[in-house]
Amino acid sequence: MTTFDRPDRRALLKGAAGAAALAGIGMPAISRAQSDVIRIGHLVPITGFLGPLGEYAQMGVKLAVEEVNASGGVLGRRIELVLEDSVNPQTGSAKAERLIERDKVAMLIGEISSATALGIGQVAQRTKTVFINTGANSDALRGQNCNPFMFHIEAANSMMVTAVGQYLKSEKMISGKKWYSLTADYAFGHDLFRVAKKFVSENGGNFIGEELVPTDATDFSPYLLKIRQARPDVVASNLAGNQITNFIKQYAEYGLQMPITGFGFDTAVAWGAGQDNFSGIWPLIWHHLVDNPSSKRFVDAFTKTYGKPPENQAWGDYNSLKLVAQSFNELKSTDSQKLAEHLRKGAKFDILKGREGYFRAYDNQMIQEMYAVRAKPAAKMKDKWDIYEPLGTVPEAGGDLEVLAPPKDGTCKMPA
């Protein structure tokens, strides 16, 4: 476990010597007085195929804590982060429970894996502790697995599909086209492919190949050979984390010319693939080129602090901490049940976009604008961060934000 609360960005490692013996969970004894800080738990994977995204998540939430504490904290108290590597669903759930029961955190922020987020959400419901999901996309988390203490600043898979789908239709890449997909073989990927296949089929496309890819796969040559033989019109990624990096890189190395797209995407994985390899049209919940004052301030502060621009995972964790701090101040309380009620009553927040966002009460999904981007030709990329150009905002200015939201199909039966 790592705690963090200082404007100078020092993270202090604390823990009992025997923590490693506790099944990798980590249960350090903390002697610091409780009354002078508000503890917030943060869990993301910082190892494994989602590790690069977890690193950006930690950078984003640390920057938010620095800014909040530098401006006087919350209710006259400092925010202290308790940072954990969620590792996998079993460990993530156990660490979430320890954060709440032992470390007495006020609420939880984070996660990227949909499977792990499900477990953390169950802990949150059982302990009546708010958990804001910043990276898990599965629609099931907003549907059959919804609960009144699990909130989602991250977009659902159906939102990602709808956002990029508008541009794929305008580019005439769906109707009458043959599609071939590669899908991450875990909860997120399965859910994303289900939603993507429905969208493509309803708009006149047809999948001629569907491959499930293990999350630890690094060699994509068997799949690329099948794609070359199948000769689809479009190749679609339903992959995650480092899978996307390796796929993009190896797709370019094989010299395949069929256009590629993706229904799930994080800028960090494209940066990892290199300027000469990135191509296609992709969805994003936010990107560092969003043109409004609050977004530009965030990009400038993040770049100054870390020497590189932020990406969408950093955006989610940064904004989650900021909106929690704002809510605690508005409530004049850090009570988690009061926080849940406040968020579910339509409180609006500046989330670095053209319009404010809010959590809708039906499923606790943040209702907000989204974006699509197109890869730049390598010759037009100014540096390793300059890899795409914005295609626009979904919905367009003045459009109903709910058009992007998961359908209210009755699968979310929110307990009272």
From TrEMBL:
Matching Gene3D superfamilies: 3.40.50.2300
Protein's name according to its UniProt entry: ABC transporter substrate-binding protein
Keywords, comma-separated and alphabetical: Amino-acid transport, Signal, Transport
Family indicated by similarity: Belongs to the leucine-binding protein family.
Keyword presence, Signal: yes
Biological classification of the source: Bacteria, Pseudomonadati, Pseudomonadota, Alphaproteobacteria, Hyphomicrobiales
Biological process, per Gene Ontology: amino acid transport
Pfam families listed in its UniProt record: Peripla_BP_6
InterPro entries (alphabetical): BCAA_transport, Leu-bd, Leu_Ile_Val-bd, Peripla_BP_I, TAT_signal
Organism domain of life: Bacteria
Domain Leucine-binding protein: 38-376
